[in-house]
Amino acid sequence: MHHHQVTLSFFVAFSIISLFVTYKISGYGPLDVTNTKVCSGNGKIYADRPNVCDCYNCFDGPACENVTPNCIINDIGGNPELHQQYWETNYDAISKSSIMVRSDYRTGYEHASHMIYEDDTKNTWSTITPEINKAIRQLHKQVKNAEVDGYSIVLGTGGTGVITAAIWALTQIANNKEPTRVFARTPFFGAYRNWANLYPTVTHWNASYDQQDFQDNLIEFITSPNNPTGKVDWEPHYKQGKLQVHDMVYYWPSLTDTSKYPPLNKDIMVFSLSKLTGHAGTRFGWALVKDKKVAEKMSEFITRVQVHTSIDAQFRALTVIKHLIGTQGDVFFNFIKTSLQSRWKRILELFEKPVMKKHFAVESEPDQFYLWIKCINVDQPCYILMAKNGLLGWDGNDFGSPVGQYVRLEMVVRDSVFEILLIRLEEIGNKLETKK
Ligand SMILES: Cc1ncc(COP(=O)(O)O)c(C=O)c1O
Ligand SMILES: *[C@@H]1O[C@H](CO)[C@@H](O)[C@H](O)[C@H]1NC(C)=O
Questions:
Q1: Residues with CB under 6 A from ligand 1
Q2: What's the 172 CA to ligand 2 centre distance in angstroms?
Q3: Can you tell me where the transmembrane regions are (predicted)?
Q4: Which atom of ligand 1 is nearest to the CA of 284?
C-alpha cells in the first residue's frame, strides 16, 4: 500500500516534470491558444487534447508544418473559422469567464430559458435569462439592425432550432387542413427545403413562383443578406403572405452596413451566434418575435423537442455578446469586415484573369460570407469539376439552382487555408485551359 503510494506520487511528479519539460522545449502550454506560432500557425491546441496539434484543413505533421499533398480543400460549410482568429487575439480579455464554466454552474433545469417576454428584463428570478435578454437587446440597439422593443425573444439550438420552431408555430397559426407550403426565392439556403420536408403531412417545400392562390397557407423565408448570394432584399415574393420568417443571421455590420436601413421590424427575425461571432459549435440562436402568441407556440415547440437551450451554451453566448457590447463590437465587426474585404479583393482580381473569366462568373456580392460561382464553358457539373481538382464546394443544385451550373464556396476559412484556396482556384482555371 505504502509502496504503491510512493510509486504513484513519484509517477505523478515525474509526469508533471516531463510535461513541463515538453512545454519548455516546444515553447507552448496546453491552453496557450493565443500564440499563433503554435502548430506553425496552421493548427490549434485545445484543452481537451493538450498535447496534440489540431491541424487546419490541408495541413498535417505533428506541428502542422506540412501542406498535405493533393489534399482536398473542404470549403463546403459555412464554418466561420475566420472569426476564431479574432477570439484568439481577444482570448485574454474574456477567458476568465468564458472558457471555464464551473462544474457547479446552474446544474438544474432552467425551465424559463427558452422564451423571454420583453418585460422579463425586470424579472429578478435567479436564472441566466434576464442577463441574456438584456445583452441581446442591447446589442441590437447598438448595431440598429433590428427593433427589439415590444418583441419577445425565443432561444434555440442555433438558428436551426428557432427556424424549425417557427415553421411549426406558423403551421399551428395557419390551422389549415392542407399541409403548409414553405417557400423561399431561388437560390435559397437548402436547409429550408430539408426542414420543410421533414413532416410531409404538416409542411412541404415548394419553390414555385406561382403559388398566389395559397398565400394564407404558405410560409416564406426572406434571407437577407442571402445565402448564397449575399444580396440584401427585404421584399417578400408573396406580398399578401402573412406567414413570414426573416432569416437575418448575416445581417450584422461585419457584412452589411446596417445603418443604411432603419432597424427592421419584421414579424419573426432570426439570428444566430454561428454567423455573428463564429461560435457555430455552441449551437445558440434566437428569434425576435412580434406576436406573443407566435412566440409562445415557438417556445412550446422548443420545450417539447429539447426542454430548453443548454445553459452552458447560453453562458458562452452571454460572454461573447457582452464582449461585443460597447466599442469592442466595432473592433470585432471591423476585423471581420476588413479581413473579408482584403480576401475579396484578391478573389476578384483572380477571377479577372482571362483564363478564369472564360470559365467562371462570380455572382455573389463582394465582402460576404460566400462565393457563388457560375461555371461557363465547362463540360461537367461545376462542383464535380472543382471536387475532382481538390476543392470541395457545395453543389449549387442544393440551393435550387439549375443542375451543374453553380457552386458555393465559403470565404471565412482560416488565413492559411485561404492561401491554399486561392492557389487551388487558379490551378483549376489553368487546367481547363491546357486541356483545350
Ligand atoms: C441563412 C441561414 N440561416 C440559418 C443558418 C443556421 O445556422 P445555425 O443553426 O448554425 O445557427 C444558416 C447556416 O448556415 C444560414 O446560412
Ligand atoms: C408547387 O406549387 C405549384 C402551384 O400550386 C404546383 O403547380 C406544383 O405542382 C407544386 N410543386 C410541388 C413540388 O409540390
A1: 78, 158-160, 189, 223, 227, 247, 249, 272, 274, 280, 285
A2: 22
A3: 6-23
A4: 11
Closest atom of ligand 1 relative to the 161 alpha carbon = 9
Residue length of the chain: 436
Statement: residue 34 has pLDDT above 60: no
Ligand that comes closest to the CA of residue 184? 1
Residue 185 contacts residue 160 (beta carbons within 8 Å) = no
Residues 6+ apart with CB under 8 A from 390: 70, 71, 72, 73, 424, 427
Which residues, in sequence order, are CB contacts of 342 under 8 Å at separation 6+?
A: none
Interatomic CA distance for residues 42 and 47, integer angstroms: 17
pLDDT of residue 90: 75
Phi then psi for residue 432, to 5 deg, are: -60, -35
Following DSSP, what letter does each residue of 199-253 receive, concatenated?
STTTEEE---S--GGGGGGEEEEEESS-TTT-------SSTT--EEEEE-TT-ST
Q: Which atom of ligand 2 is nearest to the CA of 206?
A: 1
Residue from 281, 290, 285 nearest 249 by CA: 285
Query: From the CA atom positions of the chain, what is the Rg in Å?
Result: 24
Spatial separation of the C-alpha atoms in residues 176 and 114, rounded to whole Å: 27
Largest pairwise CA distance in the chain: 84
CA–CA dist 224, 232 (Å, integer): 5
For residues 257-263, average pLDDT: 92
State the amino acid at position 270 in one-letter form.
V
Query: So what's the pLDDT on residue 196?
Result: 96
**Residue where the block lists cell 496557450:** 32
How far away, in angstroms, is 206 Cα from ligand 2 center? 6
Q: How far is the CA of 253 from the centre of ligand 1 (A)?
A: 17
CA distances from 19 to 25, 51, 69, 161 (A): 10, 9, 32, 42
Q: Using N-to-C axis directions, what is the helix angle for 129-143 and 311-324, rounded to 10°? A: 30
Residue 416 confidence (pLDDT) above 60: yes
pTM score: 0.89
Q: Are strands 59-60 and 66-67 parallel, antiparallel or unpaired?
A: antiparallel
Q: Cell numbers at residue 199, please?
A: 413532416
Q: Which amino acid is at 354?
A: P
